[in-house]
Amino acid sequence: MSKPNHQKASPLATTGRVIGQWLDSDFRREDSPDPSNLPDKVNWERTLPFIFLHLGCLAVFWVGINWTVVLAAAFLYLLRMFAITGFYHRYFSHRTFKTSRVGQFLFAALGNSSMQRGPLWWASTHRHHHKHSDEEVDVHSPVQHGFAWSHIGWLTSMKNFPTDYERIPDLKKFPELVFLNRYDQVVPFVYGLVMLAIGAGLEHFAPSLGVTMGQFFIWTFFISTTVLLHGTLFINSLAHVWGKRRYDTTDDSRNSYLLALITLGEGWHNNHHRYPHSARQGFRKREFDPTYYGLKILSWLGIIWDLKPVPQRVKEEGGTTQ
Ligand SMILES: [Zn+2]
Ligand SMILES: [Zn+2]
Predict the structure, then answer these.
(1) What angle, rounded to 10 degrees, do the helices at 224-236 and 44-57 form?
(2) Rounded to the nearest whole angstrom, what is the distance from the C-alpha of residue 128 to the centroid of ligand 2?
(3) Do strands 98-99 and 304-305 pair parallel, antiparallel, or not at all (unpaired)?
(4) How far is the C-alpha of 91 from the C-alpha of 31, rounded, in Å?
(5) Phi first, then psi: what are they for 244, rounded to 5°?
(6) Cα dihedral 174/87/159/239 (nearest 10)
(7) How many whole angstroms from 314 Cα to the centroid of ligand 2?
(8) CA dihedral in degrees (79, 71, 232, 245; nearest 10)?
(9) Ligand 1 mean position, distance from CA 299 (Å)
(10) Which of 159, 211, 239, 250 could form an SS bridge with 269, CB 3.0 to 4.6 Å?
(11) What is the pLDDT along the chain (322 residues), one digit of tens a residue?
């Protein structure tokens, strides 16, 4: 007979569970409650790494500003945003193009450095969003659950923490992706070490730049990653309340030029909800979609191929033939 899961766990068991969860995303002690039965509320123990990420930004008052580190942080924001939009989203979640096994692993690892958890959890959660957009069960719908919960709250709830591998049968067959997904703190840790090493190198070998190791680390690890996280999260929150609706979709998705600027083209969210199967989200020429331009360059280099286009009928439905 299985144990009732409302038993009070001992402090030692709780500590073991908390540490286990931090190290292994798929870890769940037998005596811990089934996450799907938990109330949808902030779980502070699970959220500590995200709190740590945000608090780290405050160290900017201690290290100050230097244009070299600001440029480096901006470059890493753009590079990793591309990995999230082009690969976590358009490749893993929607399969809008093809690539090699090595290619998918490398871009999955780059996306993983953004501290937005593993590629399989991200894709699994996102596929659920498309299936149930702005319904009661949509975990990050601003229409259903309010702006703050749709932006960041849902991410802090234990209910939304496990990866539902049933939604990603095409991805769970790759053990290297499952590894990244289970141990999703490994890549961010390595990323942090690399940033410390580059910062130390610049401080030692290029003193004329005036960069210190701590300054480089705070900007490229904490600030770049936190801004990147919120930029991405705006698509869940703002892109369902702010902007124009070209297509009469069953959800509240919107198109916004500003959000497209911040997220390298993901702001054309109403287009995307109308037709999520194309590599392009800016359906018109004027709709700035740098992720798509980057994907085109990768296709010319032979790194990716078979980019799925926007069907003519969908363009015409939106009032354009471009
Ligand atoms: Zn959406
Ligand atoms: Zn999507």
Answers:
(1) 120
(2) 10
(3) antiparallel
(4) 37
(5) -105, 150
(6) -160
(7) 16
(8) -100
(9) 26
(10) 239
(11) 344 444 566 788 778 777 777 788 887 766 666 777 778 888 888 788 889 999 999 999 999 999 999 999 999 999 999 999 999 999 999 999 999 999 999 999 999 999 999 999 999 999 999 999 999 889 999 989 999 999 999 999 988 999 999 999 999 999 999 999 999 999 999 999 999 999 999 999 999 999 999 999 999 999 999 999 999 999 999 999 999 999 999 999 999 999 999 999 999 999 999 999 999 999 999 999 999 999 999 999 999 999 999 999 999 998 876 6
Ligand 2 mean position to 89 CA, how many Å?
Answer: 6
CA 144 to chain centre: 21
Helix, strand, coil % over all residues of the chain, rounded to 5: 60, 5, 40
Which residue ranges make up each domain of the chain? 34-317
Contact 254, 239 (CB under 8 A): yes
DSSP string, 81-148: HHIIIIIIIIIIIT--SEE-HHHHHHHHHHHHTTSS--HHHHHHHHHHHHHTTTSTT-TT-HHHH-HH
Residues with CB under 5 A from ligand 2 (ion): 276
Q: In the numeric block, which tokens belong to residue 88?
A: 């976590």
Which ligand is the nearest neighbour of the Cα of 281? 2
Model confidence, pTM: 0.93
